[in-house]
Amino acid sequence: MKYKFSEQTRKMLPMYAVGAVFVVVNLILDPSVLRNWRSTCAFFLQFAPLMACAMAQTCILLTGGIDLSIGMTVSMMTTILATTMGDGPLGIAFGVIVTLLSGAAVGLIMGSVVTFARIPAIIVTLAFSYVWKGVTLFILPRPGGYIPKVFTRFFSGRAMIPGAALVLIVAVVVWKLIKNSRLGVAIYAVGDNPKVAYANGINVNRSRLAAYALSGMFVAVSALLLVGQIGCGDPTIGPPFQMNSIAAAVLGGVAFTGGVGMMRGALIGAFINTSLLNILFFAGASPYFQKVVQGLILIAVIGVKAVEYYRKGDEE
């Protein structure tokens, strides 16, 4: 019996192929990745934070918005985690729960302004990025805080548990459950056409708020992964994730216009984005040149998406 790919899977095949090529190139450039368990975990931990941020950005893009505050929100979540976490299972759990709830609250705040004040998401999130920057520096003006060693060991592979992979798998499973639920259908419908969604009985406001809250929680997950890597809270660590999260999501096929895109595409986009930086690093490229390449790729991807959008409009 011949296996038939679904339409969505067929569209993703080129992305899978490119991702596989980047895996091979990374292994050739850095064969030590497979040398031992810790090296493998460290390799995966390079990609995990951006993957979580790409998931967060995708939630907003699917509603037809865009989040320009993700960078500062990541920084804020790391400082919250580093100032609320304590020793022992209860202390660690408390810090993690507070951080996740804080992420959801941040998303709800911005989502409420977007939803009820009818202000475009790009303006709201840009404005709140400055608010979160001030809050972040108030909580922790410089890298520091307290993170138990057992927490960083969990992510580094020294505990013989693939911590970053487990955390990301849980996040993906949560999204999968939501996507297959009425809420997931509603999020896509709201992004595609809010008026039609409303006419079909979907609570547009509630769906949009849920998407923003979920996005905030994914940003908090990214902060957990980052702190597990660096071992402290850092008020300056987030900004690079801002444009990279957009690039990863768009590269993975998520549309700026809303209602179109898959989370797995965003994850692969994040992997390709980070892999490209690794390749440029091993090639000896300067950090400034790396930024130029990232910017050109983002422009190229947006350009291709724009052409596809206008062609589709002409056909209709």
Automatic annotation (TrEMBL):
GO terms for molecular function: transmembrane transporter activity. It is found in: Cell membrane. It comes from Treponema parvum. It is a multi-pass membrane protein. It comes from the Bacteria. InterPro entries: ABC_transp_permease. GO terms for cellular component: plasma membrane. Keywords: Cell membrane, Membrane, Transmembrane, Transmembrane helix. This is ABC transporter permease.
